[in-house]
Amino acid sequence: MTKAGSPLRAAFLLSAAGAGMRRRFASDLLNLTLAGPDVDRNRKKHHDAAQWMPSMNRCWFAARVVEVRRKYALTVDAREARALERVLSACASTEMVVRSCDAGPSAAVPEAPRSVPSSGTTDALRLWDDNGNGRITCREARRHGIAPVPRSHPAYPLMHDGDGDGVACE
Question: Alpha helix (H) ranges present in the chain?
Fold first, then answer.
């Protein structure tokens, strides 16, 4: 398991807190995320959100970092704040995308969106969301001939832009 955000900074700020608070922080499910050993040891390490973001579920991860920081009154430096804002400003949803174990990467199925879509996204869903899950996958975009999908396209807010560069399914 890995902590959301920087464990070193959190450990430093929580060092002045009582043992009970440190125990709550260490075992808080909001603060724990399953991660493979390779991710935890070799890629994420002790980096904060400005230095490392997952390739999948960036929006969920960034929102989780903010939630944990608020809950425990932990600070965010300027670099990390800019990185979190950059990711979150491009997100249509902060729901976790869940991938089926026996399917390939294009089989990612997110949970239902938290909010009711606007009329523009309703039209995009009607046109390009073949499986009716409230999101548009790259497979669906390619099938309809709209990929790659730039940020200005009506389908973009309903898609996952893995590298956050403003173009999905490149």
Answer: 7-14, 19-27, 37, 58-71, 78-89, 119-128, 138-143
Mind listing the pLDDT tens digit for each residue in 46-62?
Answer: 778 888 888 788 899 89
pLDDT given for residue 168 in this prediction:
92
Q: In whole angstroms, what is the distance from residue 122 CA to residue 154 CA?
A: 10
Regions of the chain where pLDDT drops below 50? 1-9, 106-119
The CA-atom distances, in angstroms, between 70 and each of 46, 65, 75, 76 are 19, 9, 8, 10
Spell 84-102 as b/e; 16+ CB within 10 A means b: beebeebbbbbbebeeeee
pTM metric for this prediction: 0.51
| Sequence letter at residue 116 | V
| Residue 54 falls in which region: left (phi positive, over 0), alpha (psi -120 to 50) or beta | beta
68, 15, 36, 111 alpha-carbon torsion, rounded to 10°: -10
Domain coordinates in residue numbering, the chain: 2-89, 97-168
C-alpha of 129 from chain center: 21
